TrEMBL record:
Residues 7-197 form the Thioesterase domain. PANTHER family: S-ACYL FATTY ACID SYNTHASE THIOESTERASE, MEDIUM CHAIN (PTHR11487:SF0), THIOESTERASE (PTHR11487). This is Thioesterase domain-containing protein. It holds the Pfam family Thioesterase. Gene3D superfamilies: alpha/beta hydrolase. InterPro entries: AB_hydrolase_fold (IPR029058), TEII (IPR012223), Thioesterase (IPR001031). Belongs to the thioesterase family. One of its GO terms (biological process) is lipid biosynthetic process.
């Protein structure tokens, strides 16, 4: 079976693509994981860490856009990754890219509740990125361990010294983040909020608050207490006990693909090309034109003179600009005013 849906998966603070290790083998063959490796960690350790959400998101969208244009996709993010996934959807929209089938956010309060001093569920110490070094009272590691559990993999001072700069960098992005989309601006696709019961990094009401960004919102909660390591916390369920979520994700993606919205019919007017795949000029154009047999770039404005709708096939449109010819209508995303 060929791939039908891709899942762009963005991990929580301090983690990399390894956070989704083993998921692909447990998913249907129709679902393909695209785990994100952000700069400054793991296989990209020698690269500079991102200094802002805007920088990370812009670079990420540039890198993954070809993969997202070629298959239907879902954007998934956990904790800090949820806010990053939200901003990835915003950036794709700004670039007039393809719409995701769904935004899946996990373990994170809604973006309009970004202000940590007011909304972070940790009322003892809402901000960690600028706390003193060391493990003593009031230090970064005292509050990190209190919040996320005392991870045995981080027991040695050497390991802590190694990962602390990355954690501080990610926490600074988390704690200084402000959304680029207003709460009244709805996405034209569903948003699914997920969480583990007992996760104290957000409240149920803060997860439900994601509903302001869509007309199609749902929640899914997972009971993972019995399968988590004793030292861990429910906030780490996607890393330490992901099986229930992965078992849910595969059928969910297949259902989203099966019920994906049909594009509106193409009618005469001005459009923008949204997807390179299949945007081929077929006839009635200058053979010396660079467009012959080539792909119209995303964002190209085309003037549709007429469209031909064929049963069980993609419609085709006759265009008069930027060159004269025919192209596959599924690549035309937006009617321009």
């Amino acid at each position: 079976m060929h791939v039908k849906v891709r899942v762009l998966a963005i991990p929580q603070a301090g983690m990399g693509a390894w956070a989704f290790h083993g998921w692909q083998e447990k998913l249907p063959k129709s679902v393909e994981m695209l785990p994100v490796e952000l700069p400054g960690r793991n296989s990209r350790m020698l690269e500079d860490k991102g200094q802002s959400m805007a920088e990370l998101v812009g670079d990420l969208v540039t890198a993954v856009m070809p993969a997202l244009e070629s298959k239907p996709f879902v954007v998934l993010g956990h904790s800090l990754g949820a806010w990053m996934a939200f901003e990835v959807c915003n950036e794709i929209e700004r670039r007039r890219g393809p719409k995701p089938l769904c935004l899946i956010v996990s373990g994170c309060r809604a973006p309009q509740l970004h202000e940590p001093l007011e909304h972070d569920a940790d009322r003892v110490m809402p901000c960690l990125h600028d706390l003193p070094k060391g493990s003593g009272p009031g230090s970064f590691w005292e509050h990190f361990d209190r919040r996320y559990g005392k991870n045995p993999d981080l027991a040695s001072d050497g390991v802590k010294d190694y990962v602390e700069p990355l954690l501080r960098s990610d926490f600074k992005i988390l704690e200084t983040y402000a959304p680029t989309r207003g709460a009244a601006e709805k996405f034209p696709f569903p948003v699914l909020g997920c969480g583990a019961r007992g996760d104290n990094r957000f409240t149920p009401e803060q997860l439900t608050a994601w509903s302001v960004y869509t007309d199609t919102f749902a929640e899914r909660w997972f009971d993972t207490a019995a399968t988590m390591p004793k030292w861990s916390t429910p906030h780490r369920y996607l890393v330490d006990s992901p099986d229930a979520f992965v078992a849910f994700l595969g059928p969910k993606c297949e259902d989203l693909f099966k019920n994906k919205p049909k594009p509106p019919p193409i009618r005469p007017g001005a459009y923008a090309v949204a997807n390179k795949k299949g945007a081929l000029v077929r006839a009635e154009c200058d053979l010396a034109s660079a467009q012959v047999g080539d792909l119209l770039p995303v964002g190209t404005r085309v003037t549709v003179e007429e469209a031909v709708h064929v049963p069980n096939a993609k419609p085709r449109a006759r265009i008069s600009a930027p060159v004269a010819g025919w192209l596959s209508c599924h690549v035309i995303a937006q009617l321009l005013g």
